From TrEMBL:
One of its GO terms (molecular function) is copper ion binding. The keyword Repeat applies. May be involved in a redox system involving ascorbic acid. This is L-ascorbate oxidase. Belongs to the multicopper oxidase family.
Amino acid sequence: MGFLNDPCLRRANLIFLYCCVLSSFIQSAVGVKSRHFKWDVEYMHWSPDGVEHIVMGINGQFPGPTIRARAGDTIHVELTNKLHTEGVVIHWHGIRQFGTPWADGTASISQCAINPGETFVSRFKVDKAGTYFYHGHYGMQRSAGLYGSLIVEVAEGEKEPFQYDGEFNLLLSDWWHKSAHEQEVDLSSQPIRWVGEPQTLLINGRGQYNCSLAARFSNSSVSLCKLRGNEQFAPQILHVHPNKTYRLRIASSTSLASLNLAIGNHKMVVVEADGNYVQPLTVDNLDIYSGESYSVLFTTDQEPSKNYWISVSVRGREPRTPQGLTILNYYPTTVSRLPPSPPPVAPRWDDYHYSRAFSNKILALEGSPKPPAKHDRRIILLNTQNLIDGYTKWAINNISLVLPSTPYLGSIRYNISKAFDRNIPPDHFGHDYDIMNPAPNNNSMYGSGVYMLNFNTTVDVILQNANMLKPNNSDIHPWHLHGHDFWVLGHGEGKFTEKDEEKFNLKNPPLRNTAVVFPYGWTALRFVADNPGAWAFHCHIEPHLHMGMGVVFAEGVEQVKKIPNQALACGLTKKMFMMKDEHN
Ligand code: C2O
Ligand code: CU
């Protein structure tokens, strides 16, 4: 498709041919490419776990097609919304969008949702190698199945700081038999109807409901799962050869579940987290929260006459969802031969000690960028669950985020004062707030204010967890920042105090785009506000975000140029930009 639009090929006279040859020569000289994709987003019948439902697919596929590119490439995705009755937007999770804040793909923040029947082109550069993914960022479209992988390899001629013989990609997600629309209404009801635990864990969009790959190890009456065949739900098997090293890319696009992944009998060496290299860390299994990605290396040094389980289990919530499973198949063993022992058992779901220890062991690879030694501003964000007029919401420093109809990027850039709440959200919460045992709190309200950050300053964010509405309960929240990577300076238990600063890791903190805050704990992050735009910072649990668990940061927006008109053709910017289109 792409080359038909290439002006060089359309006019094949000598001069243009010359320019064509020249430009492709320049392109290949630096190895940088433009990669074009044409996508239709639509609902379709699909059977992710053996039970047919509708999912949001792309070009007839679920999960959506995998994008593969090299660092420095430009991606063009021409996305047509074929949903008929709802808008859509796709976010490129982990891509910082330097210079293209309007391509971040967040409804109400970076752009207007794409209307049914309309097409929007996202054009952006993937500047850094790593394991990423993309997903819907409007309503709860991620829960509806709108996601896929985005893999960026190192630029041509560059090398990774590790070697491997082959590679696999696992995109993890969770799946409900209740539609995302119904979930949305349930969550917004009074009293709330919580979405509950997922029915199935999916690996590359495949899982099996009400059957068990492990049935033969238990006395349960559930039927044995299907291993082969071309069912949409048959697991994707990882075929390996003995005595090789493989790279496994893992990303979690779950709506709710925190996961733990293990490969039976095999150690894994973690080498990448969220698109940044980390100090090699050898583990038996790994925790992965929604919004995170990892690369691990494993060596096929086990008995080649067997197959081995790869298991994905729920952590951090009392599991009511069976493990997600697939098989590591050693050549020449037949695929249908089940592993001789049961699938790996994950650490106890509530062993937070284990989880914290794992998070603390993820450290930057030597030579990685170091954080500035000091911060210019520190924002402490208290995470609470509250009742607002009887509705259950999440609030940050007592403000539950409600997104405006005009995207922030446009309303800040063009100074449209009524587009959102001009009250500046607070940098702190009350000193006397008891995070373990809070007094009833009726101070929360809805808000759409923005944290305006001074351009190029260093910002610390301390995420402070607390008790939920239910006594003796505190949830895990994986927080994800758009437009930046941050350094994770530390995690701690209880209430953060200025003294905790002494324990910050300024030597080799990992750079990431997602970091978890553990129950009753705090997490300290540092980043430089060096990317002009308006950026979401939110809990990556889809129902939590829907219930208001997020904030918006903005910096240097006055420097943003040429926002595509179509990105702003809604809300209060609509008139301005529809008019312009007519004159064009
Ligand atoms: Cu992957 Cu705003 O999220
Ligand atoms: Cu959350």
